[in-house]
Each structure stands twice: as C-alpha cells, then as structure tokens.
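Recall the central idea of this unit: under ordinary conditions, the amino acid sequence of a chain determines the structure it adopts. In this exercise we apply that idea directly, starting from the sequence alone.
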Amino acid sequence: MERMKRIGLIGGLAWPSTEIYHRLINEDVARRLGGSHSARLVIWSEDFERIAALQRAGAWAESGAILADGARALERAGADLLAITANTMHLVADEVRAAVGIPLVHLIEVVADAAVGAGLHRLGLLGTSYTMTSSVYPDVFGPRGLEVLIPDEADRDDVHHAIYSDLTRGTATPTSRYAVRSAADRLVVAGADAVVLGCSELGLVLAPGDLPVPVLDSTALHCRALVDAALA
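Accordingly, the structure predicted from this sequence is:
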C-alpha cells in the first residue's frame, strides 16, 4: 500500500528491543490490513556495547551525536517517520529530532498520553537507573498532571542489573523476574495506580495482568503509535 509510510527504527539499543519492535509492528500491520501485509521499515542499528559504555561514562552528548547520525541515515534511506527503540536513549531525543526533517514518534509522550486517556494519575516507573533517576519521564508526565513514582535505591539497582546482565542479552532468568516483580509490587504498595515498563525488554519478565494495577508496556504502546502514524 503506497499510502503506508515507511518507519525508521533507531535500533541496537539493545538488539532484543529491535527484535521486539520489528515483531510487534509487523503483527499490528497484519492485524489491521489483513492478507500478507507487513510494515514498511528501515532499521539503523548500533553496537550496544558502544552505547552502554557511553552511558556508564555519562557521555550523553556523544551518544546523542551517534543517534542523530543514525536518524539522518534513516531519513536518507527513505524513512517517513522515526522511532528510538529504547526508553533511556530518549535522554537524547531532542538531538535526534533536531537532526532530521521527519517526525520522531516520542515513546514517552506516547506513554503519557495513554496514561491520561486511561484516567491514571500516579505511575510507578521501572527501567534502567538512567531512566528512573533522570527527568526524562517527569518532564513529559508533569505537564500532563501525572506523578512519577520510582523504586528505592536497592530496587533500582536490582532492576538495572537485571536489564543489563540478562534482558539486553535476550535472556530472562528467575532472578531477573523476581527482581522486577518485587520492585513492581513495592511500587503498588507505595500508591502507584499503574506501573510503566520503561525499558523495551522488561516485557520479557512482566506483562499486563501480572499486577493488581494496570501495566503499561511502553514498547507495545510505542509500536501501536508507530503503526497509527504509518497508516494515517
């Protein structure tokens, strides 16, 4: 269908998230259009070890420059719209947006709009330590009247370790499942009326229906929004 826009994915952040995005987007397109339809995609992918090292060093400007180069490559390759396939790397979303003339579908804006639409107010946030302790979620959520709750330091460390030691490598161990579920349970006890999976790979260990409150899978919401934009 010529009217279907081509989605550009900034991937490799880490590779399992790119795989999840590819699958969810294509499944949604097939569900909506039927037949043998699949998404029109172009993917730019970076070696995640390079990005992870820059994260550890706090070198966000360099990370932003790398992702901005990726965005420009996707635009040259024919992408009509863009997505960063990671919550944490939305710390450099402004640099990516400024680098190209095509729209960036901003993951955290998508999650915030979904939370408002669902009538939610206090959102527990799980993700990398970079995501949980930065202003990347509060900056978007606050103007929409949403409060962000984060785990205590011990739970943050456990979830962060689960993400980088297992989930970004495509594995989901019982230890990782326990760490994420325990942190989520304590957010609910602290008053969260929903829990946001603020890392692309967290859906490997926690899913909607696993908690007594709604679970907002940021990746699933983002993929749906990307298909909406591609078919608009």
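The longest helix spans residues 15-33.
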